[in-house]
Amino acid sequence: MSGPPRPTEDTPPRAIVLILTGMVFITVNDSLIKALSGDYPLHQMIFIRSAIALGMTLVILQFEGGFRALRTSTPVLHLMRGLLVVVSNMLIFAAIATLPLATATALFFVAPLMITLMSVVFLKERVGLHRAGAIVVGFAGVLVMTRPGAEAGVDRPETWVLMLPVLAATAYAGMQVMTRSLGVYSKAAALAVYIQGTFLLVSIGFYLVAGDGRFAEGVEHQSLVFLLRAWVWPTPADWPLFLTLGLCSGVVGYCLSSAYKMGNAATVSSFEYAALPMAIATGWGVFGEVPDLWMLAGTVLIAGAGIYVFMREARRRSPVAPRRPLRRG
Question: What is the pTM of this model?
Fold first, then answer.
């Protein structure tokens, strides 16, 4: 139900703890997606994790006004917003199936810069030289990591695969700009219910169209197979992983929403970059993915540009990033 915007709290220490907890669970979520991607289709994994997360969110919703909090005067806009999140998630997860975890994560973190750029184009916001320079540096990091024109090989994936996280970031940024343009008056749990519900609808649609795996026949690329593979019943050994995946999705949604409610957006957002060293360490320790110099250099440029923007906004008290997190599920 629409209503006047609610004031946010200002408790930075708790907000920082929550955002860092969210980053830990995001890293676990992405690692589980990568580990399971060789045996199950993405839409099946999305369905199971969203069903579990939706159950958790509906419980939380009872403490935030109950089911009446789901009433909205703009259901179509909420659906569009949810679809953008779904597209963003599917693209980044398809990338994680084949790319090193750190590479996909770093490329996705171009999203805050995308939000700034789209705010100029669609919301007519002004961006000074400092933020414009940060955008240029951030996208230079993307070029360093993707190296357009270089030949794909054992140590370098195809350019279109490297662009999947960037496209995911673009869809995510579009969702955030829509949020800023419309204004969000719903409870955090209600917003999570809308998004998880959209995930369920899209995954069911994928199952009805491609759940038998007929579109995967003859396809060789791992990312495409991951999207089109037939549904299979999880093995007993994999059910705990699926349950953990759903738990991660629910915890991430709660932690990030609460963090942005309790703390200043510019302050909280900068701590999201903790996911980068977590992804590098997990990729190295769990999957044996040793980052090369190109990846490290691009990561430094992207992360440095994003953190610089957030530091500028914290100083100016004019946050670029909206009060919604880099929520990927």
Answer: 0.79
